[in-house]
Amino acid sequence: MRTGLRISSLVPPGLAFDSVSDSTDSIILTVRSEMVAADCPLCGIVSRRIHSRYLRQVADLPSAGKEVRIRMITRRFVCEVADCRRQFFAERFGDDVVAIRARRTARLERIVHHLGLALGGRPAAGFAQRLMLPVSNDTLLRVVRRRTVMPSDPLIVVGIDDWAFRRNHRYGTIVCDLERRRIVALLPNRETATVQAWLSKHPGIRIVSRDRGGGYGEAASRAIPDAIQVADRWHLMENASAAFLDAVRRSMRGIRTAIGAMTINPSLLTSAERLRYQGYLRRQDAQDAIAALVSNKVPLKEIVRRTGHSRNFVRQISRGGGTDVFRTRLSMLDGYLPFLEVQWTGGCRNGAELWRRLNGQGFQGSLRVVTEWATRRRHAEKASDQQLQKIPAARSIARLMTTKRDQLTKAETVTVAAIEQSVPMLADARTLVDRFHAMIRKKAEIELEPWIEESKRSLIASFATGIANDKGAVHAAITQPWSNGQVEAQITKLKLVKRQMYGRAKLDLLQARLIGAP
Fold first, then answer.
1. Domain range holding 491?
2. How many structural domains does the chain have?
């Protein structure tokens, strides 16, 4: 059955079709209002007395591959109230049809708004051009800003975290409604006073989820002291792992004693390792001088003044750091080491030949990586048992000590056993970190107090002290179902929107695209 398009079906509801003018690229509809009277916008009295008429043209949704423009026959009415200041007024067609002074119909305005929300300015303008919608990138952003509707729902549970306008330079604060899973505020910075002022305007908040850094806990305590603060569980577990890594770094001297001698033969080192070893020797005198002052209870400020080194360097040495000779990083060659050992044992000792054979196995690294490994392997064969071999980096040792034994090789198991025997406090610290992780996962809040007491006498005492100082929020993290997980997801969404606009969006436009969508 053939069906035809009725021109009157293109007219927005509330308007009467009058005539149509068709061209190659557009359809022009002439319409008028169905109402016989209009209300005065100032006094509200109905008037039927028409003064004059004029044509008002607005854009509408495209149809059949053509732009649609609507010419609206607009009447001017005479206000019949003698003391009304508005003698003449133009009729209104309703915000759901055409808003006052609008250049687009309400249904086209909604499409433009959603395009701006989804794509921003310039990308949305390019897409709108393909959809035959006459709108520019500046107009899209103006519509997004103008139609912003800030949420007014009461807040009970919120999550707070920081996000970067520009990393390491400028940060803002994001506040999310954890019950409705949406962003409710973007603050221009992460200062305690700013967050406190915002929280003071919402006294109905009962639960605040936050990370353990910054001044968010202090701001919440001042603004809403009766609210429950919840520390983020992921950050708690990550902080515990970082505390163990710091303990490994401070124990590197004992670890080196456990798995190697304390003397190094420079002739057995590669060129890069020799340069690092020489730098270590230059730093060693300064480190010994600082360590001696620390052992004599000299304050850090006084040590900085006497030695001329930075405060961070002095603090690092005072905490047992800075004693690692080789800062070894994970290499892309690690996954091919079993194959290399087989080839080396089979008699292939040429670095270039080893590299060509690795390429056949899918290795994408350079020739120099393989030749350096071959040089180090030859040096290791010449070394005696009393000469120090290069030990793994602190991060690698921390990974080995926290990996299940059935997932380690025999050599790695021997290394871990030697470290545990020579540095028992490091093994105790690992056990405490494992217990902390299990306590968070199993929500065993009864174990928190004993764990804090034991940890204060271990290598992770600094972390335990921080947990004790924030014990209320940590206890709530174990017992409460809320966390900052969805806040992190909202930050990812915020980053996507910010990068769509090339990082040039101001705070009000970010709020409009992320918060103000109806």
1. 157-232+483-514
2. 5
